[in-house]
Automatic annotation (TrEMBL):
It comes from Triticum aestivum. CDD domains: NAPRTase_A (cd01570). Its EC number is 6.3.4.21. It catalyses: 5-phospho-alpha-D-ribose 1-diphosphate + nicotinate + ATP + H2O = nicotinate beta-D-ribonucleotide + ADP + phosphate + diphosphate. InterPro entries: Aldolase_TIM (IPR013785), N/Namide_PRibTrfase (IPR041525), NAPRTase_C (IPR041619), NAPRTase_N (IPR040727), Nic_PRibTrfase-Fam (IPR007229), Nic_PRibTrfase_pncB (IPR006405), Nicotinate_pribotase-like_C (IPR036068). The lineage of its organism: Eukaryota, Viridiplantae, Streptophyta, Embryophyta, Tracheophyta. Belongs to the NAPRTase family. This is Nicotinate phosphoribosyltransferase. Residues 30-156 form the Nicotinate phosphoribosyltransferase N-terminal domain. SUPFAM superfamilies: Nicotinate/Quinolinate PRTase C-terminal domain-like, Nicotinate/Quinolinate PRTase N-terminal domain-like.
Amino acid sequence: MAAAALANGDVRAGGGGAVPRPTNPMVTPLLTDLYQFSMAYAYWKAGKHLDRAVFDLYFRKSPFAGEFTVFGGLEECIRFIANFKFKEEEINFLRTALPTCEDGFFEYLSSIDCSDVEVYAIPEGSAVFPKVPLMIIEGPVAVVQLLETPFLSLVNYASLVTTNAARHRLVAGKPKNLLEFGLRRAQGPDGGISASRYSYMGGFDATSNVAAGRLFGIPIRGTHSHAFVSSFLGLDEIIDKALSSSDGSNKCEDFVSLVENWLVKIQGASSLRGSFGETNQSELAAFTSYALAFPNSFLALVDTYDVMRSGVPNFCAVALALNDMGYKAVGIRLDSGDLAYLSIETRKFFCAIEKEFGVVGFGKTNITASNDLNEETIDALNKQGHEVDSFGIGTYLVTCYAQAALGCVFKLVEINKQPRIKLSEDVTKVSIPCKKRCYRLYGKEGYPLVDIMTGQDEPSPKVGERILCRHPFIESKRAHVVPQHVEELLKCYWPGNSSVQREELPSLNENRSRCMRQLERMRPDHLRKLNPTPYKVSVSAQLYDFIHFLWLNEAPVGELR
């Protein structure tokens, strides 16, 4: 039933209110690396393809020189395995790609699906840390091996951009609006859609991406470009166009008259006298036309010619004319120049208008800033002082310019109930063997203290009981913890043929709320931008002993001559 529901697009309990997204035609069982099929054939040839294997999907280091990551991509992984089935044309292609493989192998591939695969995962939108499995995938080794590349592809970018968005949210602060403007700079349409989805999950408030708005129910926002402003010649053009149409000419003329009158009043206002002269009339015409089209959502781009000498005064004239007609303008957007200085001067101008003309609330009119913003520039604006209410962020957000990839890995940790370990001269690349359970231990102040991994059959940590937490590889790093709250991290999202109850997939809004709650529960020093305190990830004393026993057992003993 679960597979059928997911295959039909019903991917969340209760639907979540969002329009279901169709399966991406590019995400097929062929979306993998050739060596996965090579290994599957070798497993099949050796009669090992049905061996029961357990793989961990995890990462080794948090991105952006930080100490936390936000997990994204789980729903897409579950959608992928729900629809995992080779089509006849895909099998035919594989026959040409693997001409030396026997016919029986392709018959085997034609028969497989993920009905015997189990997936355990940390809930999407959670704060996660290195070495702790984001997902544990159990099933026939050949099938699970074919899931490695697509799962990594679906999780790596999703988690990276969600984390990037969350970092922007943290530096901007809760009261600010964050708008994702990255579609035109994203790595293709798929990258743009994913960026919009996971930026929203990471704490952004809206996107300019209309397709993402339809697919995921994300609020969409946008105004106009410099091209729109420069396309107008003057107010007479608006009136002439209105007169040539069958309706609306009187309304248009009346509104233009209001705008012109307000501009004269602003120019003559004692508190604003001398701050500007004649404004650009094509810009005034563009603002007037846009306000006529969108009187309830008028937001103007004010830097086409000159922000303080033209853009802001022209906006104010149109906004005050709208006010006379019973509407309220939304605000302005700054897309160039010294954003700190211009936002402060604009706020002063708005406050002067409110005081001069008694328009209550005008001083709080929204100021949006864009122009290649990123985490560093927002941090710099905060230190300088500014009056920006909303940030529009594109290139640096969706391309994850500061770090190209998260670097998740997919490692075998058990086969046929026999724990396996991957060794390396680089200790950070040594895997943690066996099927595990993972817990987050909280202290008396409500903050998470440490994540701990235990063997599958070990007793769970208990509130108030003293637990020895050990670094998995460094003997001297250990601490006793008495947790005030214990949270088991991994839940079953795809039970396969087991009797384990399946966890329902939350909606995107629920994942977004989880992300915000999780970051609020973290200690501030773990989240800070500069020199964050490392979050502790540990193993139980029993698992520590077993790791090192297996390590010594598997590592070859050298011989000196």
